[in-house]
Predict the 3D structure of the following.
Amino acid sequence: MTPLLEVEDLRITFPTPTGPFQAVRGVSFALGRERLGIVGESGSGKSLTGRAILRLLPPSARLEAKRLAFAGTDLLTASPRALRGIRGARISLVLQDPKYSLNPVMTVGAQIAEAARIHGRLSAREARERALAMLEAVRIRDPARVFGLYPHEVSGGMGQRIMIAMMLVPEPDLLIADEPTSALDVTVQMQVLAILDDLVARRGMGLIFISHDLDLVASFCDRVLVMYAGRVVEERAARDLAGATHPYTQGLLRSLPRLDDDRAELPVLSRDPAWREGPAP
């Protein structure tokens, strides 16, 4: 079966005063209709990889790959018009903080309806009905009332659900969720993950879940890519993450606090320069 998404030897380079800097180096993976987690520390290239799939990089960035294809479409050579037909409609991106993603001068309902109208080519009435149904799908109580609120009038957890509703209302084939729960408390995190899990299962979508929380990804995803310094150092089934073999992944796991852990201090990860260039064990 042809994968939904194919990424081979993805590289992203930025110019700097001291010369070109390669922020993403040789990332390769294929994605079916499954939940793929991408984990690593801040600056490891997780978010850049997600944005590169949609060609949403700064003008200064140079994007290269042997293959970057979605459902048979070459994203590297796709025209701007073809990309506009894919972004939002077939691939959606949920960012980590709704405060910076939602338009502050539009009601949340109008923003969701706009996404439905543009990508689904619906009438205003149909778009409103679809938006209300999606607000209900992400478990927002009294969706008719919330429809008319502005972003500053909703909580962080509700704002994140609204972002998910907006990205899912066109019924995409692939959802890229960039740390969608990082600003939420644990209870709301679990609610948002349950919503994503339910929607992905019912709609048969592919999901790329970008996070720095190894425990969260291990419990939620099917597969996990571990990134360090712009490259993938390990790939494992999520259920086997505790058996990771790369010393970087092992160090990340050891640095996590545990309820049954009696250590006075958590260990600091020691980095080996060879991890930047050498092959993954």
Notes: Residues 186-203 form the longest helix (18 residues). The chain has two domains: 1-90+175-281, 98-171. The chain has a mean pLDDT of 89. Residues 16 and 200 are 40 Å apart (CA to CA).
